[in-house]
Amino acid sequence: MTIKANLARMAAGWHAALCSLAVGAATLASVGAFATSAEAQVFETQIFDPIKRQWVDYDPKQAMKYYQAHGQTPEDFRRQLVDFRTAEKPGTVIIDGNRHYLYVVLPGFKAMRYGIGIGREGFGWAGIVEVGRKAEWPTWTPPAEMVERDPNAAKWKDGMPGGPENPLGARAMYLYENGRDTIYRIHGTSQPWSIGLNISSGCIRLVNEDVTDLYEQVEIGAKVIVLLQGAALYKGV
Known about the structure:
Largest sheet: 9 strands, mixed
CATH class: Mainly Beta
CATH topology: L,D-transpeptidase catalytic domain-like
CATH architecture: Beta Barrel
Strand order of the largest sheet: 3-6-5-4-13-8-9-10-12
Strand content: 25-35%
Number of domains: 1
Radius of gyration: 17 Å
CATH superfamily: L,D-transpeptidase catalytic domain-like
């Protein structure tokens, strides 16, 4: 499976910042302008409501409200050890975008499962890639298209130093195909409320605590399987 066709099709769509829709959105107070445009999009995420005992829709407005009230993501998207049957070897990363989960395969038919934010409509993709390199508190460099139109991004045209307000968060794992950077990353986020949503420009985001844990488990060269949307993972692959 290859993502080359996906990349070619999406090249014209790199109008947004790489993996982020806002620069420096470190607090919920700073995301108001973003929420207006994000809420207008189609989101298909659902979470289980233990009080109503049913699945309910989960959108950016609800996500921010939940995070303000609890200081963390819903339980569905918190890191946990799960049963996981697969023929893939330990250390492999499997991403189920439909359910907003990232799995790291462990011995004994187990996996560590993390909640993730994924690409919004038009920015989804699938393929088999590998971790080409890793970085702690990575520098974020906005694409040229964004630098041209956004004064806030323009000041970081030479790169925004790593830190709490950096859109890439605490850690980044750069995804490669055939030795070449795909432009996609698995990374942390300055918008922790956004986990569980279709919200990025194609990258996979985790809360900083989870991406730091993942960073320690995943080696350079690790296989990464990104499942095709519509091919939700229920019993492993």
